Amino acid sequence: MTDAALANPVSTAPVFCEDDELGYRRSLTDFTTPLTLDESYRLAHLPLVSPKHPGVIARREGKFYEMGRHPVVYSLVLPVEDGALRASPAFVALENELKAAPFAGKIAWDILPKRQDRLHATVCGSLSLEEPPAITTETREALRKIEPFTIELRGLFSGNVNRGRLYLPVYPEKRAGRNALQDVQAAFGRAPGDLWLVGLYNLTEDLDAAETAALADIVARWWGKSLLSLTVTELQVMGASDDLVLDAHVETVLPLGA
Length: 258
Hints:
Elements: H1 3-7, H2 39-44, H3 46-49, E1 69-79, H4 82-86, H5 89-100, H6 112-115, E2 120-129, H7 137-144, E3 149-155, E4 157-158, E5 165-172, E6 174-175, E7 178-179, H8 180-187, E8 197-202, H9 209-222, E9 225-232, E10 234-242, E11 249-255
Antiparallel strand pairs: 1-2, 1-10, 3-5, 3-9, 4-5, 5-8, 6-7, 10-11
């Protein structure tokens, strides 16, 4: 090997998990009928973005929501910087399409600045309720063995649960055949997942047939397109008393590979 090769080693681009290994296609909204805000969305999200909407479910027997709020839940999350996202020309182009879409007036744009410092994808939900979770020595050791990894945000995603929220799906790096986010879940004793989403936009009304078709077209055209690649060096334990994390706080920062 030459001295030049030693001075400039060839960098290896990350390999990401793809759709055949993940659950995004399986969990996509059925766009063959007009999109209606589902019950889970009307209970947990709609009260926060349109509290006077007649479809709001203020409370429900057996659920702990009260107008979209609940006791503090702590979860493990992967933070995403709003500034990095908005510095991406691809993301800006996607958002401009949404702003020009026939359903743009049904997006709660005013919520975005309220959430810009707490964008995230949940990796392990509901670690504890009301009190911060105890992170065991074993879990911390397992995280130290996971080197920082890369994720790719692609867009756009609308699911078959919480219908009314629009997300960016997370595609994690795969190393030696292993999904990096599943390794993190294993460190917390969680079963492997296949769906990690950065929630961004919230609808305030059902969509009619034409609006639904327009959303389906945007989802289809942007499917698989890279919006942003991020190196994940740490995860956070975040506490929040609503599903839009409007009042969220970071309880603990957990570094990887350190």
